[in-house]
What does this fold into?
Amino acid sequence: MKPLLSVRDLTTVFSLPGGLVARPVDGVSLDLFPGETLALVGESGSGKTTLALSLLRLIPEPPGRIDPASRVELDGTDVMRLDSTALRRVRGGGMAMIFQEPGSSLNPVMTVGSQIAETVRVHARLDRGAARRRTRDLLADVGLSDPDRRLDQYPHELSGGMQQRVMIAMALAGHPRVLIADEPTTALDVTIQLQILDLLTDLKRRLGLAVLLITHDLGVAARVADRVAVMYAGRIVESGPTARLFQRPRHPYTEALLLAVPRVDRPAERLPVVPGQPPPATDWPAGCRFHPRCRHAWERCRGAEPDLLGTDQEHVARCWLMDEPGRRAP
Amino acid sequence: MTSARIRLGLVAVGLLYLIALLAPALAPYDPAAQLDLVGGRLLPPSLGHPLGTDPLSRDLLSRLLFGARLSLSIAALAVAVAVTVGTAVGLAAGLAGGVIDGILMRSVDAALAIPRVFLLIVILALWEQGGITALVLVLGLTGWFGTSRLVRAEVLSLRRRDFVLAAQALGLPSWRIALRHVLPNAVAPIVVSATLGVGNTILIEAALSFLGIGVRPPQPSWGNMIADGQAFLATAPWQAMVPGVAVVVTVMAFSVLGDALRDRIDPRTR
It folds into this structure.
């Protein structure tokens, strides 16, 4: 099957004051297939959000810049080479994005209905009445109760979960094929989180969407993702089908992340932590970027960075242990 | 507390505009009619002339009412011009950023360095035939610098807000984001600055009319009424005091309203 979204060597650079250069996203490649959810997991500062914004070219330029060699192909069209009109059509029409804080992602002085209808009309020639009917249908699609009343309410009149549903409705207004969800449940209560995640899964099935779910929460990834990609220091360090990746993590970083998740079936003493700090995006370590924090690291890790390695094409890890399993520390 | 002050300010301002609007119905005489140049000059208040008559035997109350009409409309129109230009410049500078922002804001800085009253006097003295239109335009076009800086600052913070990013992510054109998402969220400070601006403009207009280059006789304005009355401060003090009090009350009404609105919008200044 051909990927719907194909990202190759995406690199985003920021020029900081004092001549520093940050590379929060550094040579990322990934594929997203129609009807699947890919979870992109990683710590804060690993470059997940910058990656998402780069896909839609929403990086402020300057100080940011997407490396001209980067390719982001949506159904064969290279988003990086579109003019501004075509780019606008892709934003919301090809790929739509929702954000972490639904409360601040909605315009506080516009009603929910007019905000969604505005996006509807930007992407389709509809008169006001038709746009309003479509808006109402969208609100019903995302499971909002009493959609007719919601149309004329302001965002502050809604709960966080309802606001996120509105945001999702708005994202669907332009009939996108890819939905990028950046920490869509982080700001919500746990019970509401599940509802929103189930809604995303439901929409993915009903509309055949491809969902790129960005999260730092492995539980969220486990619940909804078909595949998981782990990001560390601007790179994808491991990717594979969700079940296999969680059962047999290959990269020591993934392993450490999984061990740091509290579990009900294990006595809660002290959770193991990943030693050290994530490196700053201005100064990625030479060699394997995880080696300063890795308990298995040897000379080879300090000297050169591995590619994504693996005997199984679907489950790969950027780790020399794939090459020399005997080096694994006990 | 704040809402009481807002209500007070709104009532006062509303009443003033109502009086101005109804001036032709409320005024007992034609404000320009010289009723009795021989025996009717500088009459003290009486039943026939509640505020007396001026040095040219015109009814003072009628002149005060028509003066309100002129002063309030000149100030409102001038502020409308100023707010429109200031908002447009501030929005453009804040959204464009970079070189355009630099050029616009340095020009505003330069313009703010010229004393406004001095500039007004020079322009109005040279543009003698301009009449009220000139006064409105000149007051408006010299009054937008502060607003533009205010709007720019507001836009700079708004354009980094999540809902602006969300609108961009969903493919809305930038003009639409500017006019429908950024601008409406900047309305509150604009309203405050406009309200305070009206009071300030009334004061400047009165000063210019006092100097004889604002509203010119025989049209009544509070400023030129004070000028007419100042020669009689010893013998008929109410001639200058009545329009003077009108100016003070009006400016205060706008200040109270503007300050209260600002406190409501920005709780930190409370």
